Request: fold
Amino acid sequence: MPDTIHPNGLEDQVDEFEIAVPSPPELMRRRAKSHRGFIIGGSVVLFFLAVAVFAPVLAPYGPYDQELTKRLIPPVWDAAKGTWDHPFGTDALGRDYLTRLMYGAQISLMIGFFAAAVSAIVGSTIGMIGGYFGGRVDNFIMYLINVKLALPGLLVALSLVSVFGGSILALILILSFLFWDRYAVVTRSVTQQIRVNDYITAAQALGTSRTRIIIGEVLPNVMNQIIVIASLEMAVAIIVEAALSFLGLGVQPPTPSWGLLLSEGRSYMFFMPYLINFPGLAIFFLVISINMMGDGIRDITAPEGRN
Amino acid sequence: MNQLMGQFGHPDSDAVPALECRNVGRTFMIKKGMFAEKQPLKAVQEVSLQVNRGEVLAIVGESGCGKTTLAKMLLGLLEPTTGEILLDGVPINSVSIKDIARKVQPVFQDPYSSLNPRKTIEQIISLPLKVHEIGSKESRRARVEEYMRLVGLPKRLVHSYPNQLSGGQRQRVAIARALIMEPKIVVCDEPTSALDVSVQAHILNLLQDLRKELNLTYAFISHDLAVVEHLADWVAVMYLGRLIEFGKAIDIFNNPKHPYTRALLDSVLTPDASLGLPEITLGRGLPNPLSPPSGCYFHPRCPDAKEQCSAEQPALIENEDRLIECHLYK
Amino acid sequence: MSSDTVLEVENLSVDIAVPAGTLHAVSNLSLQVEQGETLCIVGESGCGKSITSLAIMNLLPRKAKLTADKLALEDRDLLSMSESEFAKLRGDRIGMIFQDPMTSLNPVFRIGDQLEEVYIQHGKGGRKEARERAEFLLEKVGIVAPTERLSQYPHQLSGGLRQRMMIAMTLMCDPALIIADEPTTALDVTMQAQTLNLLRSLQKEFNAGLILITHDLGVVARMADRVMVMYAGRAVEIGSAEEVFDMPTHPYTQGLIDCIPVPGRTEPGSKLGSIRGIVPALVGDLDGCMFRNRCDHVSDPCLSGDIGLTEISAGRAYRCHLSPEESKNKLSVEGAACP
Amino acid sequence: MAKFLLHRLYIAILVAITVSVIAFSLLRLSGDLAAELAGEDASEEEIAQTAKQYGLDRPLYVQYFDWAGDALTGDLGRSLFTNEPVVEMIFERIGVTIKLALYAIFVSLIVAIPLGVLASVRPNTLIDRMALGIAVFGQAIPNFYFALLLILLFAVNLRWLPISGNDSFANFILPAFTLGLGAMPQFMRLTRSGMLDVLDSDFIRTARAKGLNPRRVLFKHALRNAILPIVSLMAVVLGFLLGGTVIIESIFALNGVGFLAFESIMRQDFPVVQSIVFILSLSYIVLTLLSDLINAQLDPRIRLG
Reply:
């Protein structure tokens, strides 16, 4: 090792004009703190999460407790019939609606999260491989994506659910099949952009294995996009699960899925609109807050220079 | 050809050259569309040159002349389709890419794309050690700091990210990453052309100092002939994938022989206000490398073209103090 | 101001709102360009040279705020003009050539349409006259078979050809002023000299003023009638090309010249001169000389206050506390140390 | 250009074949076909007999080629439930679905494109925020819930529009609006971001430096470039809408292919489901080919490249 070469000027002292540029993690922290959509969306998601996790503690009744004498009690603000015993009223079988809604959050969040996570892992792996290797591998992956896009997803999902039944695990896997392509498309194109960077060439020139390059050099640069898509896909997964259950092809009664509540409430909606409004609004608010959070993450992790 | 190279140019050629190209060529098969015939693109053809330990070999030419392809072959990232490359007399294709990596390392042009924006400076500089499983975590850290000092990076930047560094500092990081493997040869691909003038001087001085200190050999790829003149011992001029002139820098700059080399030298705009703009008589731009001209590739742009030039491809011959590929010289 | 003056700018400042505060991209810049004259603005990245050109064109980004005492093109006050009045001048009296010819032309329209629409938009004539003018100019910029070229799309042309198209496009309406922002930086060296030659000869032929913005001292020396060196949003030295290159008065100019290797002048393998330190970030309140952190001749007056331009002779000025004699002595001694 | 299209066609055919294999296996996945055909009380023997009669005892690939061969001649088999030819069932109803999808895409485009353009021209203003708000709303509201709300409001309370049926144009208004709102955010966001990118590009700066009037810069130079990805998205969304009508058609009892698919799934009539999946996939493939063709016409880099 030679002596230090004095490199003309770059002393260890800070130049008087030097300004502190935040590091990427620091920058994200700062942006997150001042991003209103992210904070609001994130708080609401956290609220739903807390309700879901602590439903057994918080809920006034059990999700399947029926009291046939107390059927279709309207919410508490109905001056004539409302009661604090059932603040959100009861359903056609006399089950406490608030309790059912709280347990419904469990199902929505669980299916949404795992469907988004499984499809993220599968889709991103496929996308990064196609984007990095290019050539025939990429052609094959493009072909897979094209096949997936050509299939009417909801219809295939409905058929599969009708074949395999509406267990939560089956739903998660079927929904994952529905959503992997978006990750694949995005990670593939981002990887293609990253691949041409000189830091990839530098890693190659070290004899780094391809797996190591994909995991160590490419993935950290794709991660943000994956998280953004995951949040958006989670929102869609929640809607689709509700839709399947609404059609009677998802989670089976008496499980309190929001989609199922909507479907059950549909017969009474002309007289008891709260039966569809509570689950409908629950889905709407959960989805909108996840979307706000996702849009927030996108803004927060965006490279500098874009507003 | 090999014989020719043996006789040529190196009076002290008892020593094995640090880097030698023998008749190196690389052809890409370009496919335009699904059913089209693949077309050969000869990115590099019949390049023969050599450089001794501690010397600087400059490879010059315009974009599309094949210098980047050549650089990738020198780094072992592309295999030559013809000929062979020798490092210290050992053919490059007889050793693994990791062994090549210990001897040859790159420094790239764009200091923004050559550093992973999601990694800290320490992670970037220590990557070679990690990939090659050299040393413990602590010893790697010490070595990173050592090399940061060597290239003039303040220690406080060790946990910074590339976006927090100036262009010059980033290029120093890239140099430290290249040197930490203690390679003998550094392939510098336009290392200063993305930098500001005042920063370029720092980096060129640093590269000079490091070469002397560590007895490094540079393959220095550039289109800036002023920089090349300043730095290089040997100059190889490439045109459309072919080596058209190769010799000692001093000879080539004092007496360029190939008409293309002359045109390149004429194109250098020195900051001399008393001179006007040079008249360059090259006419049109570079031809399509997929269908290069007949005969000498340069003849459509050559002011001295003869009949023979469009019919017959000249061979690379030895002419006095250099190798040249031109019908004007015998 | 003489009647030959095409452009006159007094105390132009451009402030840009950034997250950290206000970025003073250009501060109190004054310049003028005469008919048929080439003014080169030279400086490193971030010195404000491109912002200056966009300010003159009124093409600044939305977040940028422009202030000036005077901004006049051919005696017309640009400051009081509405955007639609200004648009009538752009492409007509004042044309601009950008750095990257690969992205500066619209990929989905034919070259001919893009050239002709300037002519038609500014009411110079109909489609037929526009086509004739375009063909005439393509011959001027040395393009063989102009008719075929006009019916091609940008992606079918090489970078050098595209830049010539850009030059032809700015000349469609016979402008009084051309602004070229790094017009040859993206081109190969052999195309650079040709393109510059073309630009210069056409500028003289059409008797237009030319503002050439570049970081390349070689281009400046060969092209400029007058030179303005910019640093940190300010003009630090102004003068004729000979004056600035043969006898720089600002330490920054001297430093820049020392930095580049010059065949025949710098000794191969020798150490190049260099400028230490970093370019200041121009955010917040700026005080004193912006070059003080990189300068070898700093004294107390450099640290605060406003450093004005010192005029040595007509059209020759610099922004430094060193007197002309001091700067001559100090800088030339230093210059001699670096052969 | 010809090469480009040939390449696309080649991929399209490959995808179509794969999709047909998947559609075919969907039927096989659904259980023992022979048992279903033979009826609920059939004995082992009768089932075997049925299997033989329908050729279900042959190797799967033989059955596939058999099915595919029939499909090529326009024979997609018969419904297990009504015993009608599936092709006839589908073609009776596909008109309703196509109408619905076209209305829906019209609704979403007519809102999304002007709004996206406005939002991109005036980023971070009230109009931009409004556009974003509508997009976020459209993305978050489950369409089956939104459909119920529309029914409550317009059909029950206001009595302006019919609740269900498919006889008149009025029947399509609510379903088209529901579907259109769901598709709108994608177009809005793509228009906005595409326009922002294009407006930021060098050639738009050139156009402005030429002194072109702002409308010409926006509508000729910018929109022409930004429209390219929108055309591709239109094909994708239209394909998606054709398949996505399952829920909406069931809610509004529109007798289209989606409703048929839903009914068939509910009564395990898999030959019908399989055929609908296959036909919808084919229409998606044709639509994307068409959009490629249009894009090639709009973009000289493809046309001449």
Observations:
- Chain C touches chain A at residues 20, 274-281, 283, 293 (CB under 8 Å).
- The longest strand of chain C covers residues 5-18.
